[in-house]
Amino acid sequence: MDIGKMIDSHAFVFAIIFLTFIIPMLSPIGLPMTVSAYVKKTYDFMQTVPEGSNVLMFPDFQIGILPELGPAYMAIFRYCMKRNMKVIMMEYNYQFGGSIQAAQIIDEVKAKGELQNKVYGVDYVHLGWHAGWEAGMALMAADFKKNINPVDYYGNPTQGMKILEPIKSIKDFPMLVLITSMGAGTQPEVALRQFQVPYGSKLIYGGCAQFIPLVVPYFTSGQLAGLLPSLSGGAELEYLTGLKAKGLAATDVMTFTHFALIGLLILGNIRYLSRRYVKKSK
Predict the structure, then answer these.
(1) What's the predicted TM-score (pTM) here?
(2) Which of 81, 62, 59 is closest to 177 using CA atoms?
(3) For 185-209, what is each residue's pLDDT tens digit?
(4) 252-257: long-range contacts (C-beta < 8 A, 24 or more apart)?
(5) What mean pLDDT comes out for the span 18-33?
(6) Which helix (H) or strand (E) holds 164?
(7) 176 — phi, psi (to 5°)?
(8) Please, which residues have CB within 8 angstroms of residue 260's CB and are 6 or more apart in sequence?
(9) Could you read off the pLDDT of 200-233 as tens digits, one per residue?
(10) Looking at the DSSP assignment, which residues form a beta bridge with residue 60?
């Protein structure tokens, strides 16, 4: 085999890039990373929430944004299950169909075996989409059970569900999680107006990269208890919690691919210089 010809071929380059992509995706390694101040503060806040607490999670992002925001939503859900928290999922945004993404994330966590000792309707529940947008959120915050759907996402009656029995209002949730593809001027302000301002609710916001600069003022002012920027926020939270998944897999891919490209550049230059040396020696 002519090693030189193999290195010169396009197939060699494609094979290297393919391997640096597929290996971390199949088995996330979790390479060391620098955790941003936003994610560190978010994680520190999550650590202060007592084990067994009620957590309300809003999956307000469409399927096209799932690779970017799904890791953050899944990381928080897995963390809550690990600490025996009671997770209630519901959606108010009529545009995105986030309830479908939430159901998919539940299925993925279930496939990992992490819900094996959890009971649906006792430890977690998916209430699906609720009408009313901001008005609906205000009603739900004031009187939770009176203003939720009579059936959950899967068609099960919500009346009598053990997880919902102790919930009277938004005050019964020491942690709210809003993962949304909408930025400042819409979704964050709605949640702040209806939950944080009147009730003092502690809210974690996770959003697309382009919206983070617009939301940072709410975080620095203390109105947001946590901020998870884009895919990196989900990956960093996976890193801190030790719950490796798609977020760390994606950042591992980026890291390995960059190293591979640097290596290929060095190898290409070595190959070029060696060929020049051979020509001169002839």
Answers:
(1) 0.88
(2) 59
(3) 457 889 999 999 999 999 999 999 9
(4) 252/24, 252/28, 252/29, 252/30, 252/31, 253/20, 253/21, 253/24, 253/25, 255/31, 256/20, 256/21, 256/23, 256/24, 257/17, 257/20, 257/21
(5) 83
(6) none
(7) -115, 145
(8) 16, 17, 20
(9) 999 999 999 988 998 999 999 999 999 999 999 9
(10) 180
Burial class (CB in 10 A: 0-12, 13-18, 19+), 40: middle
Tokens in use for 84?
């025996």
Hey, is 176 helix, strand or coil? strand
Continuous segment of H or E residues that includes residue 109: helix 98-111
| Measured CA distances, 125 to 39, 167, 179, 276 (Å) | 26, 13, 17, 67
- The fold adopted by the segment(s) 32-243 is Rossmann fold (3.40.50)
Closest CA to 86 of 147, 166, 23, 1: 166
Which tens digits make up the pLDDT trace of 54-106?
A: 999 999 998 889 999 999 999 999 999 999 999 999 998 776 789 999 999 99
